[in-house]
Amino acid sequence: MARVARACLRSILKIVNSTLGLVGIAMILYGLWMLRVWKRDMESPSFDDFDYTALWFIYTFLSIGATLCLITCLGHISADSSNGFCLSCYMVIIFLLLLLETLVAADILLNSDWEKDLPEDPTGRLHDFREFVESNFDFFKWIAMLIILVQGFSILLAMILRALGPNNGSKYDIDEEYTSARLPLINPHLQTPQYVVGEPRFTTKNDAWNINK
C-alpha cells in the first residue's frame, strides 16, 4: 500500500512541478522575442556603441525563466529518487521563491512609485510589459494565483513524500537479480549431489589375494 501511495505522490508531484517548467519556458520564449524586437529596432549605426548592460530587463526575464526550468528538473529528480536531501533542497528553493514573489507583489501593490526603484530601461520593454499586464489584468491575476497554489502544493507533496521515505523494495529486487545471476546457465534447477563423509576403506592383502585367484 505504501508503494502505491508513493508512486501516486511521485506522479502528482511531477505533474504539478511541470507547471513551473511551462511558465519558465513561456518566459524564455517571451524574453527571446523581446530581444529579437529590440535588435530589429536598433538597426542603426549607434547599435555598435550601445551599452548591453541596459538590457537588464530582458536578461532578468530570461534568467527567471531558466531558473524555473532548473527548479523543475530538480523537482523531477527529487520525485524519482525520493531522496530526503533532494526533497529538502527542493522544498527550501520553492519556499524561498514563494517568499520572494510575495515580497515583490507586496512592494508593487503598496508602493505606487515602484518603477523608480528600478534602473532605467532604454529598450522600453518594461513599459510595454506593464501595459500588456494591465490590459490583461484578470488573466494574469489567475495565472499568479495558480503559480502560488502550485508552489504551495509542491511543498506539501514533497513533505509527504519525504516522510514516506525512499522505496526500499528496489534493493530486494536487485538482490534477487544478483542471486539468480549466480545460478548455473545450464539446468539451474539441478541440485548438486550430496556427499556422505565416512571413513576411508583400505584393501587388505587377503582381499587382494582373493581377487588374484
TrEMBL record:
It is found in: Membrane. It comes from the Eukaryota. Pfam families: Tetraspanin (PF00335). The chain crosses the membrane at residues 12-33, 53-75, 87-110, 139-161. GO terms for cellular component: membrane. It is a multi-pass membrane protein. This is Tetraspanin-19-like. It comes from Salix udensis.
